[in-house]
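User:
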Amino acid sequence: MTCPLCQSRPAKRQCPALERNICAVCCGTKRLTEIRCPDSCGYLASARRHPAAQLQRQRDRDVSLLWPALSTLTERQSRFFFLFQSLAARLPSDPLRPLRDEDVAAAAAVLATTLEAASRGVIYEQAPQSLPAQQLVRSMRGAFEEIAAELKGPLTPLEKDAAKALRGIEDAAQRIGPIVGDTTRGYLALLERVLEPPGSPAGDGPGTDGPPGHGTNLVLP
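Assistant: Predicted structure:
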């Protein structure tokens, strides 16, 4: 039997909240968020008894999924990567038009193309089709322009670094959802966990060093 939530993995765990079997991944990642687990659930009780191990396993998995996009980035490119990701994770959401992984990929691709063209002295403007993606492009571009305004010197290296980070985000937003079994918000859900602020139940993720979107979080040349 296939899990009714992800429609991909075997359903081997009896869920008392849904009164049907689901897969272990959906049980672990959707517990108390998308699934209203009763206190009588044995899996919930086990997770509460061993929260540290469960969180560490989730964090290890999240980092391993992000690593292909991060592994070739320099320090400054990595800071851009987490800055732009934090803007995506915290973008105000319209219930009627929620931000989806495909919107993040589209926004990152459009802005990366714009910055790559700018680094070659070419003016190129394009807008993604969806409204949430357009809103995210404006947010990320505003953050980049704030950083660029503080830079004394040529913009080309900064444009190239930001574009490289955005290509990494485009790749991650397209790749991670199918792996975790949620092609709508699998990547965004991962971001929410990774960028959880210090002191929260999920611990402190490898986010930016200060407020999301603040230009001084980047090490400038």
